[in-house]
Amino acid sequence: MTTSNLPCLALAGPTASGKTAAALALAERLAPRHPVEIISVDSALVYRGMDIGTAKPSRAELARAPHHLIDIRDPLQAYSAAEFAHDAGALVQAIRARGALPLLVGGTMLYFKALMEGLDPMPPAHPEVRAALEAEATERGWPALHADLARLDPITAQRLAPNDAQRIQRALEVYRVSGQTLSSFHAAQQGVKTGALPIELISLEPLERQSLHHRIEQRFDAMLQQGFIDEVCRLRARGDLHPDLPSMRCVGYRQAWEALSGVTPMSELRDRGIFATRQLAKRQLTWLRSMPQRHTVACDARDAQDQVLALAETLLRNSGQLD
Known about the structure:
By secondary structure, this protein is of the alpha/beta class. 51% of the residues lie in helices and 9% in strands. It is built from 14 helices and 6 strands. It has a 6-stranded parallel sheet with strand order 3-2-4-1-5-6, sandwiched between helices. The two termini are 15 Å apart. The model has no long low-confidence stretch (mean pLDDT 91).
């Protein structure tokens, strides 16, 4: 087995399932034999200035092992699954070239899907077209651009919400750049995938859903105590961010933005934030359970971390990456 087709070890799970702690414990367990570098698989951790609401690893945690794809974007910028797959693939090669082991850790399942299944070849991003669409949306609103898309590509428009700015923009961008609708492009390219990466996936999942709900409540309460509302106030004070941006649609941030805007009562922020986080965890678990190749560890087991360490060492040893 050559270095290029060795499977990557990945640790996934819903929010609050203990991924960060398990990843750091694994990195420290393996360090005497192989250094480990962690690649974040999280669409929220890429944003600078969004630390509390994303449960970003602390400085002390980041210092315990090299981390990648954290704090690489301003909240004004988007970061697509295609960009992630490209960046993560390059990092895997670079980390292995240094004689270290890459460890993919996170809960953004679309990113994992992009890595494991590859991506449809698509036209690259076109900054000028994107800027023009942003300007049109500012003037007319995203629902109006959604109506434009419905006339051009009803199949794609039907599966998008009228305010789904990121996806509406991408669908119109593809049409303006290539002259093809996104749906016809997908149909023409069906079955043609690029960049698939072999992955051994360890999934942290609760035996009892209530135990995960309790963890989510504890985490959200801790975020509020640490100054989450002040963090969102600072982001709003910039003046260039708005609630339709991918960064501000992150769970917790959307609810805080709405409360600070007076759209919803501030007294409901905690309950709304916890509910939204539970819904996110439900979607993450649904996606994970559609992956029969995953290796499951109960995150609410007392020895969950020990199980992750033992399983990871077995998988690495079986693939020839660990003596």
